[in-house]
Protein: Chloride channel protein
Organism: Pygocentrus nattereri
Amino acid sequence: MMDLLDEPVPGVGTYEDFNTIDWVREKSKDRDRHREIASQSKESTWAFIMSIHDAFSGWLLMLLVGLKAGALAGWIDIAAHWMTDLKEGVCLSGFWFNHEHCCWNSKETTFQERDKCPNWKSWAELLIGYNNGPLAYIMNYLMYVCWALFFSFLAVSLVRSFAPYACGSGIPEIKTILSGFIIRGYLGKWTLMIKTITLVLAVSSGLSLGKEGPLVHVACCCGNILCHLFTKYRKNEAKRREVLSAAAAVGVSVAFGAPIGGVLFSLEEVSYYFPLKTLWRSFFAALVAAFTLRSINPFGNSRLVLFYVEFHSPWHLVELVPFVLLGIFGGIWGAFFIRANIAWCRRRKTTRLGQYPVLEVLVVTAITAVLAFPNSYTRMSTSELISELFNDCGLLDSSQLCNYSNVSDIKLSGNTLPDRPASHDVYMAMWQLALALIFKMLITVVTFGMKIPSGLFIPSMAVGAIAGRLLGVGMEQLAYYHHDWVIFKGWCSPGADCITPGLYAMVGAAACLGGVTRMTVSLVVIMFELTGGLEYIVPLMAATMTSKWVADALGREGIYEAHIRLNGYPFLEPKEEFSHKTLAMDVMRPRRSDPPVSIITQDGMSVEEVEALIADTSYSGFPVVVSQESQRLVGFVLRRDLVVSIENARQRQEGVVSTSRIFFTEYTPPQPPNCPPPLKLRGIMDLSPFTVTDHTPMDIVVDIFRKLGLRQCLAFIGDHHQEGHFKAHGPNTGLSYLTHAPVCSHLSGREWLS
């Protein structure tokens, strides 16, 4: 007779697609594995060596994840930079050079026109022979739009044909997966390959999106694929999610060049279960990834990001007022963006718009390219725009934003310049930035959520950086012309560098990103690592907290939580409070008039009866009781484990037929001589299912599911022999019923959404 307690059956203990894992069972399996390894390590030298390998395998896996993610991020940065410049021209000395690299070795480049060199030719120069005049402008315009459409068409076609999961940011799905949900293929090799390629195409097309969010998805794909090299991560879903938490930290580390910020981002924003061991390994993996990216040096500036800046002037206490104003703007923008984007995405899901993803991408790309080209601040890549907005104007800057009016008797201090009156060029730049702000705010709403890889970090930062730069220049001119006002007396004298507009841009970027994502601690650390200035942490903290308070007052959900709810993923938000004053008994099903719940007895059912029960119900599991008369709870068995065990028994155990009895007892009673061999399935039963009483408040029940990561919970009904169950609300309810002795009921907590 087959005993599944002693002989494991392939498939038992695994999970189906779009189901939730049982954290308690997975952790119990891992503890049993550790005990077995510890006991065997004392028996032989080889077992001792294998135990050391098992202990070290986690760190080795983190090393591989960091190396792979860092290398992919470096390739993405280099390719995206080259393809973005390809929309405007090509390098004659080597088509693989971007604009900046093409002009590095040119001896004919002047300082005033450092972006112009003979080796770099615009498309107008190549096609019609000159680069000035209306015809040349129209030619460059057309080529810009055509390249943008070509890149976006390639991106959406590859996603649609080969890896539908490669679209979007990926962070909402990563959060759901880390909470215990299973989406087969979302972190697979095809998704990794297509997302890496299409991310470059999407960013290069000039759409209002970023690569930072998708890089988290790419890093998690790397972590998931590399998990298959190690048995303890391949066979345990909870252990695998520890690796994915570390991989999420790696993604932010290579996206922003912020290893510490990446670890805090994983802890604060995406991880559901984050033990101290995972914190250390996340830190190590983020360190390795940052070192790998630094070795590749994708931007040629020995930095990990394109918009690394350093400010030289201190901030003053009076400036906290405009910083807080930027925080208020960021909170309002974040709440507006979430509502508008969710409304647009819901329209996409419920109307015919969602049936034409390729057409939608092409139309949005065409609108973006046509409107972006005339404005130099929307034509450039968003990362370059942020870099220019963060920049602190110095002696060597030739940007239009830094082209202030010259003042006689100017006193220089290093590379810093005192506040000066704005020239016509600066005012023109302000008008262009104001138009760019409106354009970015509107176009990002319809871009995020399309069927291409699209991140939200960079567009949100761009909106805030533009608003911050506008406010910073306004404050700078106010201080220059009215330095005798009370608010400027004592710290802003004539000829001094009082206001740093680039700092306002940085604070605004943090405020808007915080308003959209509701990040706080990790966001401040990421921005600090971007700038390298400890003294600007207080302005960043003030703006970030203000934006979160304002955004929370207008809507409790961040953008990722809103998309999780829109897509119907089963996710118990740890930060959300359960406000309903109900008891477990208030939501139990079935009622007295409903049919009784389905149960399995421990020794009185045949294979045929169990298979009929499985066929007639859609529950993901069944309580096992002593008998129909004495419904005392023995344990709980999952539907999938039952199906797999019966199928394996038919194949591997001779004589098993439909009339064979199924036993969940420890000892099998003697069988009559002519009876077919029984099945002993005690090994697949959970002998200690978690139980509560029917008078347990629902807020405690929900908290139990959050804290313990339960997949199901049984509820005792105290005094009446009535059967019932908690009804799970939400899609794909794994289990929706229960039974017990005296009486019990079941809640599929991972799908509990209301």
Residues 1-6, 720-754 have pLDDT under 50 and may be disordered.
